[in-house]
């Protein structure tokens, strides 16, 4: 009889540990330094930056901007095909993300892909505290890949407003000013 | 029985492999620009089950479809709004996919001006020149030109040396900035007797900066009492440009008192010299 009570006790203790582990894993948020942004790490467009602003960022700030700008485009390209904005939350300001979340509907991934290969950034304003950057991305090369295997590359001019929040630059507002196809799409 | 199974497998393979190639649906009201919530797209389609998605410049969205025999209506729902620009509509039925491109726009949207100020807190001791960065966007996040083709503006504004909390051109609480008073210029010092309690009440003030603004509440002030070799230091803070201190009479009688805020000191005051 004592043996059965002991086994029962062990069983209950095991059950408690398993349920505690489940609660813990479902609520834990991975800290920033442990997060692995595979989208950003796999993106490698060419970027050159010209500073036209009165306040000038230093070299370290420009390197951080370049890295985060590549990441933002990696997430924009992901969202272009997948409607769920949740994986890209860290790359947008709250007000920009809120609208993406409002539009989100579950559904199949889109059949058209977009890739960015080149960006030419002209920094128009840079705040003294280094927390705001407005830029024009001129002659950006964007390629659309269609389901029939064809593709179309466009030269785009994009106005971008970024805010440094948390640990990285985030997209606050954007305007696709124009997109001109390099060749007519067949 | 074996023949029967073979027949089923052959029939299944023939159905599976015979994919129906559909003709490209004809877009009846083809146009280069679509406004969401206002324009619907009409197509003549072969009979089939259709689905659709729209690749907008930032996010994939799914429009509503209404199919009536050979007519298909694509309705882009009045969702929260989209980032405007070139979009692609994909009409899909089984393995057939047809692409249509157009410019996608929002209906008229309320726009908001962002007025960023740096620094947010200024002191009359230092430069009163503030950087202002302006840009305008709609409630979705589309940048709107400010004037002409310019999307961003930068100005340098010299503020008046007047303390207070101010709001920028947008008038929103987030845009608030602050001008704080600078260093005190003079520390007037006086005392009075509080007879029944045998105490001395020491008062400094009004404490003003060089532009006649009251110095900030909570400014640290030190009182030094010197009597012979004995030196007493008492700390206090200012409130509404004054600092007061009440001390026992016997403790400070015949003392010389000096009050200091940072590097600024008052003149020496003799406390009860006749005692």
Brief digest:
With 186 residues, chain A is of the alpha+beta class. Chain A is built from 4 helices and 5 strands, in the order ααβααββββ. Chain A has a single domain, classed as Roll (Nuclear Transport Factor 2, Chain: A), CATH 3.10.450.
Give an overview of the whole structure.
The complex is a heterodimer of chains A (186) and B (275). Chain A is α+β, with helices and mostly antiparallel strands and 186 residues long. Chain A has a single domain (45-181), classed as Nuclear Transport Factor 2, Chain: A (Roll), CATH 3.10.450. Helix content of chain A is 34%, strand content 34%. Chain A has four helices and five strands, in the order ααβααββββ. Chain A has helices at residues 2-27, 38-41, 59-81, 94-103, and strands at residues 46-51, 113-126, 132-145, 151-165, 168-181. Chain A has a five-stranded mixed sheet. In chain A, strand 2 and strand 3 form a beta hairpin. The longest helix of chain A has 26 residues, at 2-27. Chain A is elongated, with a radius of gyration of 23 Å. The termini of chain A are far apart. The model of chain A has no long low-confidence stretch (mean pLDDT 91). Helix content of chain B is 7%, strand content 46%. Chain B is built from two helices and 24 strands. Chain B has helices spanning 2-17, 249-252, and strands at 26-27, 33-35, 40-44, 51-55, 60-61, 64-68, 71-75, 85-93, 96-105, 111-118, 121-123, 129-138, 143-144, 153-158, 164-166, 177-180, 189-194, 199-204, 220-227, 230-237, 243-248, 256-261, 264-265, 269-270. The longest helix of chain B has 16 residues, at 2-17. The radius of gyration of chain B is 39 Å and the shape is rod-shaped. Chain B starts with a helix and ends in a 5-residue tail after the last strand. At the A-B interface, helix 3, helix 4, strand 2, strand 3 and strand 4 of A face strand 4, strand 5, strand 8, strand 10 and strand 12 of B.
